[in-house]
Structures
1.
Amino acid sequence: MAEQKISEKREYVRADLTTRVKIQQVSRQEFEQIKTMQTGIPLDGTCPDETNIPDGPMGHLFRRMAGIEEKVDQILAKLDPESRSDEGVKYGTSQNVSGVGIKLSLDEEMEAGQLVLISLSVPGFSIGFLQAYGEVIRVVPKEDMGRQSFDTSIKFLIINETEREKLISYAFFKQRQAIRGLTMAKKNNREY
């Protein structure tokens, strides 16, 4: 029980991260299909043939390949941004990230409960970006120097566990850097 609480607390460790974020709205039906592909368990309890993924190395390979087309599209979009339509896509700037979600600033308001596909660059990630599905849980309007924006909090619903662990490690790394910086600043202030 205590081990579970420690694990849960690790996921909530946040780190500042300012990077461009791509948000694409996803319908409930699309999300349910992705969720079924990720878990291999349809929501209606049936088990169609394409979800009968074997256990072991081959099953692992099948699950990894399931999202390859989407990842190739992302790589192509990074290499040639003009090649893809940005219909239904919003861009924002992340403020902080944790293993359970992200807070970002958007120019357009989204609705709480909206399902989204999130893509963002995170230092130390393979091919430089993280992709996760999430749900908008909070939107707070904000005005700064006459410019309207929306602080938007998104909870991750589908995220690769390895990537979640990398996010948690990144958050702890950033916290250690901040602590070292404060320690060095205090030490330098005492020397003068």
2.
Amino acid sequence: MLLESRDHISLLIAHVASGKPESTADVHQKSQELIDRLMSRIENERQQEQPLAVSPQESVNQLDDDAPSQAGLWHLSLRFGHGVLRNGMDPLSMIRYLDKLGTVEHIVTLSDSMPPANQMDSENCYLGFEIAFNSSVDQATIDSVFDFVREDSKIRILPPHSPLTAYRRLIQELPEDDAYIADIWSKCGTLTQDELAWMWRSGQNVLADDQRASPQPAEVSAAQQPDVADMSRLPKENKAAGNHFIRIDAEKLDQLINLVGELIIYGAGTNQLAQNA
């Protein structure tokens, strides 16, 4: 259908280029036919989509700390350091490489840390990414994609069906607003509305257990379903930047050291040959 539409658009352009802007009845009929077919296809796809439904409060009550997430997707929260481009690393190439390991089901680019244009450094990276990833590989394989940027970046990877507490810890660690991240996760399909509501309620419980916390918000009635925006009430425990760590496979590190050694040897040999010449 798209190829047929492309051919018809080419015909329309050629018709206008020939100095005949008036469409013939046949051309007009074909245009309407293609539009109807495309709109019908779009409508069918919309009907097949399963939106995240807000289920009764009882289903939220059945969730607990050990409950696994329903989505069978990996979730990657990537916050690349400002210096990765200057260090010769390309975040986009790493994301593209994920397609060799599986399928990037959904990706959201975060540009919150980007300064005004007159303050931007063209060699700095200001972007982060939230990615829903479908793959059968193990976590070590996915981790290895980001081995060379871990020192300057914050790479967080959650396996499919991770416990909800892992998502709650992650959302507390991310620098962005909780409600904003929760909305992204909902759109990515990482968490359902029920699971987001549980995180909101469990966040209240954490506040209640912390004597240093401010008074707990008023209790929500059973008939009131928490909205994604209520995720902003989750406690902020780890928003401050932590220490930087680098994790590289020891075998890869040995290979790099050997390569550097060989480069030094070859470099010295080249210098010697140049002096003898």
3.
Amino acid sequence: MVTGNHSFRRGAIIVSVIVVALAAAGSLLWPTENQSPLPQSGGDVVRENRGELFDDPRSPVGGNPQGDITIVEFMDYNCGACRRMAPILAQAKERDPGLRIVYKEFPIRGPDSTLAAKAALAAHRQGKYVEFHKGLMEFPGQASQVAIEEAAGSLGLDMERLLAAMEDPAIARQVERNRALANTLGIIGTPAFVIGTEVRSGLLELSALESLIEHERRKRGSSKDSTSDIRATGE
């Protein structure tokens, strides 16, 4: 005779076997940096949050500030996929004079990531966000206090002013707004991108990224050639 406890144990074993089998088959979509890019439902949610996504004056902007196509990137400086994505974005920016990039600090990998995000936003106040961002992405190791000091020193930033800004509650609120925005969009991992009304998660190859950009241009009835007279005024 099978008792209640035996039934419970047997049920738990069956569930465990199913979970292991699904995980081995790659059917459990845990948010990892190696996760394949997944199209997510954007549409109305993106449109409802368009102002905060694309036009928030507090968010740093790279590429061409007057570009015709905007990529919004949610990233973490201690995310390996984000670091691999950085040179791909840089290459896309160099190849496309009409590309605008909005950076959303989304630290999800612990205290060092949050510290680095605050430092980057503090560097933005000294007009050096893009350069500082690049320094942290290229740092050979954990983006921590050491990386922050090295990046700030190489750019000649005012360290006292940087540290003071990092403690400003306004910067902490900005990071929390980004977290809330990501949550609204269903973003749970990094890197993640918003292009038009499309939300994508995971590392994108250059060809895939450029396909998304050109798809958005076609939707708008323009082309890359029509932006050839645009000159980037940002980095």
4.
Amino acid sequence: MQSIQLAVQAVCSAGTEVIVPTPAWPNISAAIGIHGARAVSVPLREEDGGWRLHLDDIEAAITPRTTALFLNSPCNPTGWVAHQGLLREFLDLARKHGLWIIADEIYALFHYGDGARAPSFYDIAEEDDQIIFVNSMSKNWAMTGWRVGWISAPAVLGQVFENLIQYSTSGVPSFSQWGAVAALTEGRDFLQQQVARAREGRDCVLRGLQGLNRVKVLPPEGAFYLFLFQSMASPIHAASRLISCGRPASGWHREPPSAPVASIICAFAMPAGRIISRKPCDELAFG
């Protein structure tokens, strides 16, 4: 979240606009608003059994006040994933209009297509492209609560971000940094297990929802908003809860002292405040 705030501070000012494909995690629009800028929503379209982003819609929303385009892929909360061809078109559009891209790839490893991660602007960008990558250890590395995030951006913004961080948090606590080092150097097997469980959880949820015949289901291509919180101390007993747009069911964070870290496996958007089940994923009941 701080990475997003810093990115917005770096490229926006009062009266400017940032284009945000929606549905979207609401915090990005809030971050833009508190800095005096305006979030301009461009809805994804429901087509061919999935979500689609049309670049013509994005371009039509660009005005002389537009300074940046925001893209979250894989997307919270829809599970939509931008394929590499779309990313190229998005980047070409930003270059054409001289706009910054704020690329939120926090769910990159939770991708159910080919490859070890979702398509990324890293795959196609030139060194001087105006792209600010914002990311975190929270989701891909199961480190929610450690508050470790980062920004990758062109060197021209180096001093800008150094100043913004110096005048806010001054940096990340050293013990959290060492936790991130451990996750990066020793956590590969664990993370692969989590992604596999995420895929299983998605398929379980889809089967349940499709069986209701009372809801329309758009199969997500990436991370989506069913939270499966798994105790690190007792992996067999994974508690799952369906929640609304990032609002946890009461008490989910109260893990026992022996399980200080809860792993977010995957996610799916559901009606506000309604808990459908508190059973393990393979026993989820729908109705």
